[in-house]
Amino acid sequence: MLELVKRFFKTRYVALLEEETARLRGENRALLNSLLGTAGFPPVEFAEPVKPVELPRLRKRSWQQVQRKNELEAMKG
After folding, report:
1. I want to staple 65 with a disulfide (CB 3.0 to 4.6 A). Which of 21, 33, 46, 61 is the partner?
2. Containing H/E element for 70?
3. Parent domain of 32
């Protein structure tokens, strides 16, 4: 139960950090373009950041499940 709670808060924390990072990047772009505009240069066009591909979560098997799988494979071949 404790591990479940830890995992929940860790994923929430990581999500909050990612949101904060995205917000700060946008703010930095705006500030840079503002400074460039003040200096008389055209604003810089930024490429959209590449979003990470979400991989499917791998199911962790117990040692009993792994042992059973190994036994079935041994019986087949």
Report:
1. 61
2. helix 63-76
3. 1-46
Residue 59 lies in a domain: no
Determine, yes or no, domain membership for 65: no
CA–CA distance from 66 to each of 17, 23, 24, 36, 72 (Å)? 36, 44, 45, 60, 10
Give the Cα separation of 64 and 48 in Å (integer).
46
The single-letter DSSP state of residue 77 is -
Q: Quick check: pTM over 0.85?
A: no
How many structural domains is the chain composed of? Answer: 1
Please provide the DSSP assignment of 5-57 as one string. HHHHHHHHHHHHHHHHHHHHHHHHHHHHHHHHHHHTPPPPPPPPPPPPPPPPP
Dump pLDDT digits (tens) for 18-71: 899 989 998 999 999 999 999 999 988 888 766 767 777 777 888 898 899 999
